[in-house]
Design goal:
The structure holds two protein chains of two kinds. By secondary structure, chain A is an alpha/beta fold. Chain A is about 40% helix and about 10% strand. Chain A has three domains: about 10-65, Alpha-Beta Plaits, CATH 3.30.70.20; about 70-350, no CATH class; about 370-450, no CATH class. Chain A has helices at about 20-25, 50-55, 70-75, 85, 95-105, 115-130, 145-155, 165-180, 200-205, 220-230, 275-285, 315-335, 345-350, 370-385, 400-410, 420-425, 430-445, and strands spanning about 10, 30-35, 40, 60-65, 75-80, 110-115, 140, 190-195, 215-220, 270, 295-300. The longest helix of chain A is centred in the last third of the chain and has 21 residues, at about 315-335. Chain A is globular and about 85 Å long. In chain B, about 35% of the residues lie in helices and about 30% in strands. Chain B contains five helices and five strands, in the order βααββαααββ. Chain B has helices at about 15-25, 35-55, 80-85, 95-100, 105-115; strands spanning about 1-10, 55-65, 65-75, 115-125, 125-135. In chain B, a hairpin with a 3-residue loop joins strand 4 (about 115-125) and strand 5 (about 125-135). The longest helix of chain B is centred in the N-terminal third of the chain and has 21 residues, at about 35-55. The two termini of chain B are about 15 Å apart.
Chain lengths: ~450, ~140
């Protein structure tokens, strides 16, 4: 195994972490263990989906993004690249142009909506759907957690991942290009991408199948939301009703679930929610599903409206975005056609829109050598048969099987299991003191101090 | 590494569980993903054959450093004409089975395509044995 270094946005603050193991229980890729009283993430397994972030009761799981204020000072010309779901966070009394004005007030020279790039992607999909050489089903590369989930858990499906850059990347390439003719030094132009989730931070920092990203700064949407909310009441309502739509109305819904699939010719499915996605990919990888041309997959329920950095309610966001689409469609009927400035730079984007092939990761691999891996697997199977099998998590691993794996990897031992401990104590293989130390090794010092044994006396 | 699974004839809802388990095992070994996919497809087709045609069967899997050997032995009606069964598009599946999306007559040819070696033996009225080898 190459021991490759993987970049992650999801981090654990061990100062705050109380070792409650809620995160360990919900992790879909079994990437979390409890060590010395704190949650620890296995980088080779994490897909930055953020399930752990959502369940942490003490906000110890955090998302590592870039510093906004410092970076605002660093660049001369600052562009805010904002996804449509951001506008959907606000009550409908605030218009898109009002929200954009508020963003500019925070120190940005321009605000650009990510989904402009979707009009370009739609055109690409028409071509890609005609290309019989590409493996079916084509799997959308839109959700970075889906891409990573496939790399880690379904390596044989990596070749089905569409080799097309994400909308935020394409929009950033366009923004860099149109500002390159100005008299500002290109290095002083900053593209700030505001993200609804952790996985898009990783996608922007260390994109899969790309050498580097055209975005400069990636910041949580939550932070922008708070800053905009504070000042929006003072922004006058501008009359933007007469303006033409600058993108096809339904492009705004792209990040939600169900729109993207409509633009790929043939049989297609839209699946959202991490467990749904895993179940489907499992069937697909096993050869149970055939004759599907395209899969639109989103790790979050309701797509990006359910992103972990979206402060609003996902269903309200979906409804608001839907209303905005309708409004823009009505405006199109009254006015003229869509004028998308990005579409004047098709050639530029066509040149730079493709990614390299996505490679599998080694999250499930036991060893490079098949023989050794098989030996390990036999050991895991044998160890697992000694474990109780109800996945209590008291050993610091989410399932008995995970503990067996960890033991074979040399990261744990049999006495971590509280049931095995009892047997060992009964047979005088383990002293109560040793059992105590083992528990402390997993759950941290002082963890067993909560319960005071009064030797049968009633507490006074 | 030896794995064994019981397969129940007619239980379409569970069809594919055994082959999924084998695939999960293979993913932990350093085997090219393309090969894992090929094995998964071959085993799934083979498993569905037992579910669709036989009363019950046993799938035995042996994995070594060199490859995978699978033996599927079923109790069932058997195959009258093996050469015909191997033809693309030929199927004896009932209408009921076809309605469920199976029985397109691609099962056996598809298995053969994905394997390095395939041996099919059958005694009509008794059952069928399918042996597959895929080298790593």
């Amino acid at each position: 195994m190459t021991g490759q270094h993987y970049v992650h946005a999801i981090q654990i603050n061990t100062e705050k972490c109380i070792g409650c193991s809620h995160c360990m229980q919900v992790c879909s890729t079994q990437a979390i263990r409890i060590v010395e009283g704190h949650a620890r993430i296995m980088p080779e397994r994490c897909v930055d989906c953020g399930e752990c972030y959502s369940v942490c009761p003490v906000a110890a799981v955090y998302v590592k993004d870039d510093e906004l204020e410092l970076n605002l000072q660093k660049f001369i010309y600052k562009i805010a690249l904002v996804p449509a779901v951001f506008f959907g966070q606000f009550p409908t009394q605030y218009s898109v142009s009002q929200i954009s004005s508020a963003i500019r007030k925070l120190g940005f020279n321009a605000v650009f909506e990510v989904e402009h790039a979707v009009d370009f992607i739609k055109e690409q999909y028409v071509e890609i759907a005609e290309d019989a050489e590409i493996a079916r089903p084509v799997i959308s590369s839109f959700c970075p957690s889906v891409v990573r989930l496939i790399q880690v858990m379904f390596p044989s499906l990596t070749e089905n991942i569409l080799r097309l850059k994400a909308p935020h990347d394409l929009a950033a390439i366009y923004l860099r290009h149109i500002n390159s003719n100005s008299n500002i030094n290109p290095e002083e132009i900053g593209v700030f991408y505001f993200t609804p989730c952790a996985s898009k931070i990783v996608a922007a920092k260390a994109p899969e199948g790309e050498d580097d990203s055209p975005t400069d700064v990636v910041v949580s949407m939550k932070l922008l939301y708070n800053k905009v909310y504070r000042i929006i009441k003072d922004i006058p309502l501008s009359d933007d009703l007469k303006r033409n739509s600058t993108m096809e109305p339904d492009s705004i819904k792209w990040a939600l679930s169900g729109t993207e699939r409509e633009y790929f010719k043939g049989r297609s499915l839209a699946i959202d929610g991490v467990e749904n996605v895993i179940k489907f990919l499992e069937k697909l990888e096993s050869g149970h599903i055939t004759d599907i041309d395209f899969l639109e997959l989103r790790v979050c329920d309701q797509g990006c409206a359910g992103g972990i950095l979206c402060p609003g309610n996902r269903f309200l966001t979906v409804e608001r975005i839907g209303e905005r689409v309708k409004k823009l469609q009505n405006r199109l009927v009254e006015n003229k056609e869509v004028v998308n400035p990005l579409m004047n730079h098709r050639e530029l984007l066509e040149k730079g829109c493709k990614t390299e092939a996505i490679k599998p990761r080694e999250g499930l691999l036991l060893d490079d050598n098949v023989e050794i891996a098989l030996q390990k697997m036999k050991k895991i199977k044998a160890l697992n048969s000694y474990l109780p099998g109800f996945d209590c998590g008291a050993c610091g691993a989410p399932t008995c099987k995970n503990l067996a794996e960890d033991i074979v990897k040399g990261k744990a031992n049999m006495s971590y299991c509280v049931f095995v401990q009892r047997v060992m104590e009964k047979n005088y293989k383990l002293s109560p003191e040793q059992a105590f130390q083992t528990i402390e090794k997993i759950w941290g010092k002082d963890r067993l101090n909560k319960y005071k044994d009064n030797h049968g006396e009633k507490e006074s | 590494m030896h794995l064994q699974f019981e397969i129940e004839g007619g239980d379409f809802s569970a069809a594919g569980e055994a082959s999924s388990e084998v695939k999960k095992t293979l993913k932990q070994l350093n085997i090219p993903p393309v090969l894992v996919r090929r094995i998964a497809v071959a085993l799934y087709e083979a498993e569905v054959n037992v579910v669709a045609h036989a009363y019950r069967g046993v799938m035995e899997v042996d994995i070594s450093g060199g490859g995978i050997y699978v033996k599927l032995k079923d109790k069932g009606p058997g195959i009258e004409n093996i050469d015909r069964a191997m033809e693309e598009g030929f199927s004896t599946a009932s209408d009921k089975v076809r309605e469920m999306g199976f029985g397109a007559g691609m099962g056996l040819p598809n298995i053969k395509k994905n394997c390095d070696e395939m041996k099919l033996t059958s005694t009509p009225g008794v059952g069928t044995t399918l042996e597959l080898t895929i080298n790593f």
